[in-house]
Design brief:
heterodimer; A: mainly beta; 10-stranded mixed beta sheet; 1 helix; about 45% strand
Chain lengths: ~170, ~190
């Protein structure tokens, strides 16, 4: 099932306004400006990282990171585990951006999903099989938040990973 | 625990409870260290900025769970190194080059920078621990730790002690120093796990 309610997730075109202020946005540095001194933009981004803090979330750690290739098709599969919960994220390049397929086991129908990626966010919810798909994501730092609907269970957050334009 | 370690632990505890100023102070204190680690791996500007931000986001994830908040500097340096290696590993899996030897040579991490910074921190810890020793033990170790140390006879004469007591007193001083240093050593090891 493809997620709708997508906000601010264009993969191409101008940078969405406010993207630079997101905590997981990485500043672009001209190569010629790189020195041994900490760039001001990197320090500012580090200060902003504090806003990504989810004080009550349980972090689901990455336990496997595989790249599967078949002919011209490439897919990166990230597996996160916390106790009995397994979150599998498959990322593949599609039409100049990234497609992300999420599978959570055991499935909890209606779980709210927030994907933080490449300086933007998208929202969706799991279907009865514990799956959801997102299109047109940006490369960059990525983390997924899961909040079971109508439940007091704490939010799950996958550990941050870096995804490139190829997955 | 030294003043620097106490300050670091205090900043971590405050940031974990939501104090933004404490977080900013951590960035101020350790941002340069993380950047120097990325520079030592000769990453591109984009990769270095990526590693820096990932390292801070990792601290954000784990700030309430650090085994020893006083060692946050060592924890950040280790995390940044792992992220640099991860970038290099993924780069190798997707980049084809003509001259593998030159790539490998170029990817050799320059450990000197962050090792030097961490070494300076350890030296500062040692000095702090030395100053917490009783004055007589401190005086003896300072004499014996000189680049060109005096003989036991000279130490005995300088400190007006019996010659036979120099060895046992030196041993007691080192054991006491080790006990004082014990906490930082344990946390440094835990950060490497």
């Amino acid at each position: 099932m493809a997620a709708d309610g997508v906000d601010d997730n264009r993969a191409e075109g101008p940078v969405p306004p406010g993207r630079e202020s997101l905590p997981w946005h990485v500043p672009e540095l001209p190569e010629e400006s790189i020195t041994d001194d900490l760039p001001a933009a990197v320090a500012e981004a580090a200060r902003r990282a504090f806003d990504a803090r989810e004080a009550d979330a349980r972090v689901v750690g990455l336990i496997a990171d595989r790249t599967l290739s078949r002919r011209r098709h490439q897919q990166r599969v990230l597996t996160f585990v916390d106790g009995d919960t397994t979150v599998e994220i498959s990322i593949s390049p599609r039409a100049g951006s990234l497609c992300l397929r999420l599978h959570v086991s055991p499935p909890v129908n209606g779980t709210d999903v927030e994907v933080r990626h490449g300086g933007a966010t998208v929202h969706g919810s799991l279907d009865s099989l514990g799956e959801v798909e997102f299109q047109a994501l940006r490369p960059g730092l990525l983390s997924v938040l899961l909040q079971p609907a109508g439940s007091r269970a704490s939010t799950l957050q996958t550990s941050w990973v870096r995804v490139s334009a190829s997955g | 625990m030294s003043t620097a370690s106490r300050d670091a632990a205090n900043l971590v505890t405050r940031a974990a409870s939501g104090d933004r100023k404490a977080w900013d102070a951590l960035v101020e204190a350790y941002g340069g260290l993380i950047w120097s680690v990325t520079r030592s791996y000769r990453l591109s500007g984009a990769e270095a900025a990526d590693v820096s931000q990932t390292t801070w986001l990792r601290l954000c994830e784990n700030i309430g769970r650090l085994r020893d908040p006083a060692c946050v500097g060592a924890w950040l340096a280790t995390t940044a190194r792992r992220e640099c290696l991860s970038v290099q590993a993924r780069r190798r899996s997707v980049v084809l080059v003509d001259d593998i030897a030159s790539l490998e040579a170029d990817d050799e991490p320059d450990d000197e920078v962050d090792t030097r910074i961490l070494h300076q921190e350890q030296v500062a810890e040692l000095r702090g621990a030395l100053h917490r020793l009783p004055a007589r033990l401190q005086e003896m170790l300072e004499l014996l730790m000189q680049d060109d140390p005096p003989t036991y006879e000279e130490v005995a004469a300088t400190m007006h002690l019996p010659l036979g007591s120099i060895g046992p007193t030196r041993g007691r001083a080192l054991r006491t120093l080790r006990r004082i240093m014990e906490a930082p050593t344990a946390c440094e090891l835990s950060s490497m796990r």
